[in-house]
Design a protein that fits this description.
This protein is of the alpha/beta class. The chain contains 5 helices and 7 strands; from the N terminus they run βββαββαβααβα.
């Protein structure tokens, strides 16, 4: 069940939690904080979580959003889980490359590729 202010759509498929984003632009500090809290709740409730973040439809990501993703990644690792990112558009992927976050995250072209790696 989604909360009314939810920035995320969450579904499950074969023991994988798939999170897609409602917002096309993830730029505002409050929204980023709420997204981080929502994802962290998913991670906390399921040790060993297998999490796929699907960025289909996301056009813009702020540096604060990148910071939130790093925090989520650390939390997933603490819980002995797996995190995969998919469907990141070219401009956002360039930012991942410039910041070398493409080395930190396991990024896949499609959700199906990411699911196969979980």
């Amino acid at each position: 069940m989604e909360t009314p202010s939810s920035h995320l759509k969450v579904r499950r498929s074969d023991n994988v939690t798939i999170v897609s984003f409602v917002d096309r632009k993830i730029l505002e500090e409050l929204a980023i904080q709420e997204i981080g809290e929502e994802i962290n709740r998913l991670v906390e409730t399921e040790p060993g979580v297998r999490l796929l973040l699907d960025f289909s439809g996301v056009d813009h990501l702020s540096s604060a959003a990148l910071g939130m993703l790093i925090t989520v990644n650390n939390r997933v690792k603490e819980q002995n889980g797996l995190l995969r990112l998919a469907n990141i558009n070219k401009q956002i992927f360039e930012v991942f490359k410039i910041t070398r976050l493409n080395k930190l995250f396991s990024i896949h072209a499609t959700a199906d590729d990411a699911l196969a790696d979980l």
